[in-house]
């Protein structure tokens, strides 16, 4: 079989657009399938190869015949097959977030190498906080168990008969329930 004719970009079915971008398309079942517009001709060629793998084309019809599988072609493809400008915008914003995250991770790794004392202090703080929270939860569980045991015995209140909280609670409730002189309830 004769080798396929390559376009002026040097890749099969990759064409340069007027604005400087590169377009990729593939023919499947007699219909042209638009793969998208890409910033580089290599990205467009990689997208073409992913589609060629999906359509079961032979390796001599691919731009990068050294790629051995669809998953390898997908991993080498720099951008997914984007069908709309909205998808492309979401992909680029996601890539920016990934780049920011990777830069942050690199910075933090460098910080840990340069400032081991800060790392140790941070670990000590969180260890102490974890111990404190564990003790606090244990205290809450113990108090709850005591309250439930008292309730099960029939002693619903934890206040004793001579506890001044009874007097304070009853007096504040009584003053709230007592109508003032200027209120008229006969309306």
From TrEMBL:
- What is one GO biological process annotated to this record? ethylene-activated signaling pathway
- What GO terms fall under cellular component here? nucleus
Which superkingdom heads the taxonomic lineage of this protein's source?
Answer: Eukaryota
Q: Which SUPFAM superfamilies match?
A: DNA-binding domain
**InterPro entries listed in its UniProt record:** AP2/ERF_dom, AP2/ERF_dom_sf, DNA-bd_dom_sf, ERF_plant
What keywords is this UniProt entry annotated with? DNA-binding, Nucleus, Transcription, Transcription regulation
Q: GO molecular function: any one?
A: DNA binding
- Cited PANTHER family: DNA-BINDING DOMAIN
Protein name per Swiss-Prot or TrEMBL: AP2/ERF domain-containing protein
User: Could you tell me which species this protein originates from?
Assistant: Lolium multiflorum
Q: What taxonomic classification does the UniProt entry list for its organism? A: Eukaryota, Viridiplantae, Streptophyta, Embryophyta, Tracheophyta
